[in-house]
TrEMBL record:
This is Chitin-binding type-2 domain-containing protein. GO terms for cellular component: extracellular region. Keywords: Chitin-binding, Disulfide bond, Glycoprotein, Repeat, Signal. InterPro entries: Chitin-bd_dom, Chitin-bd_dom_sf, Chitin_bind-dev_reg. The keyword ATP-binding does not apply. GO terms for molecular function: chitin binding. It holds the Pfam family CBM_14. The keyword Cell membrane does not apply. PROSITE patterns: CHIT_BIND_II.
Amino acid sequence: MIKTTTFGLTYTFSSLLLVLLIAQQSLAQGNDTFNPNTLCPLLANGTKIKDPRYCNVYIVCMNDTSVSGSCGDQFFDLNTGLCVDPDTIDCISSNPCAKQSTGFAPDPYSCNGYYYCSNGVGTHGECSSGLNYNPDTNNCIRNFPCEITMLPDDYCNIVPVGAFIKVPDSCTQYQTCWQSQLLNGTCPTGFLFDAFRGDCDYPQNVNCVDKNNPEIPVEVSCNQTGVFISDGVTCNGYFYCGEKNDEGDYKMIHGNCPVDRFFVATNGGECLPRTSIRCPYDRCVTLGLDFMQMANIDDDGCIGFAICQYGKEISRAECPQGQYFDEMAQLCVDEEITYAACSTSPSSTTTSSTTGSTIITSSSTISSTTTTTASSQIYTSTTATTEAADSVKVPT
Ligand SMILES: *[C@@H]1O[C@H](CO)[C@@H](O)[C@H](O)[C@H]1NC(C)=O
Ligand SMILES: *[C@@H]1O[C@H](CO)[C@@H](O)[C@H](O)[C@H]1NC(C)=O
Ligand SMILES: *[C@@H]1O[C@H](CO)[C@@H](O)[C@H](O)[C@H]1NC(C)=O
Ligand SMILES: *[C@@H]1O[C@H](CO)[C@@H](O)[C@H](O)[C@H]1NC(C)=O
Ligand SMILES: *[C@@H]1O[C@H](CO)[C@@H](O)[C@H](O)[C@H]1NC(C)=O
């Protein structure tokens, strides 16, 4: 659960924010690839998973490492996390002899293969072409109906239903198993996925280095090191201009302002309260994530508003005659609203209310925390240093 205050309102977010998209079941993982020490860092602390190499072994992911346990003569039931009678569950294991150490067993990877297990050691056999192995009769049968819907190393054979699995190299995507299907999910705009807690949270609370920087629009380019520039696509996104490489191009590192702030290039780049910033891109960014919200519209005299859903503008409307839209109050009001964001007057200086403005540290000492402000939000672009809890790591 995340609680935050934006525009004076308290919003409560929970993992219900996680937006699921149906995805095809991934069969990508190979059987030799199961490694709890690479899987556990993608799962929430405390998640109990099945070791697909056995029927009776489970693994608890703890503090990013793994601790395994055994059910002895019983089998591990992934659904309940308990040890149960072997007859009550269908164990899918990469070891065909895990279920029964002596006798015939199907090949977990193919319909026409089988094993003969002797004291836990399997000898592979294969039905002739066009025949499939029938595990009930231990025969090869023509056109015997068989379809492998779950491979031993599929996430959904290992990770319990509803557990969130971080997508490596992404800071926003995760996957989860539901009815034996692997579903893809993405955190709402402005949020990052926290694998250790299995939830979406504000960037400042998540330690993630996104290797998938957004596309850099052609018109967006750095001309000096140590400054921040707009990402040219979003109101809250920016690039930090890093060192020049051998080709003479600046390294560009993407980042986002905290939720209620927009990026502006003044003073080498800063994040200011959104109502004080004019922005040509979708002002709905980070709004409407779990219930409907509205945003002021650029340059319309503050009479209209955009309706926001999942961080995107879905339509526009106007306040009743004589009223103005107040983004902070999320209401049409009688008093005239003069936010710089929506005023028709040329970019006014109503940004005086920048108490607690977020300064993005701009300087060559970017790798260490240098400046702090009233808001205690500090942006740093670093490699290994772990900053204070309130800071954000800009991806490298
Ligand atoms: C689901 O996500 C995975 C990992 O990012 C990707 O490879 C796959 O194509 C996605 N599937 C769908 C249907 O979006
Ligand atoms: C791994 O899977 C392949 C088929 O994908 C199978 O031929 C092979 O026997 C499996 N290896 C082990 C060790 O189970
Ligand atoms: C992770 O979970 C374990 C067991 O569930 C708990 O003992 C430990 O304190 C947790 N670690 C952190 C850093 O919260
Ligand atoms: C996990 O981390 C927590 C907090 O850092 C610590 O109290 C606990 O002892 C650790 N558990 C293990 C098994 O390392
Ligand atoms: C870099 O570009 C900005 C705006 O694009 C411009 O205002 C500034 O003068 C340029 N700086 C240099 C050193 O060329």
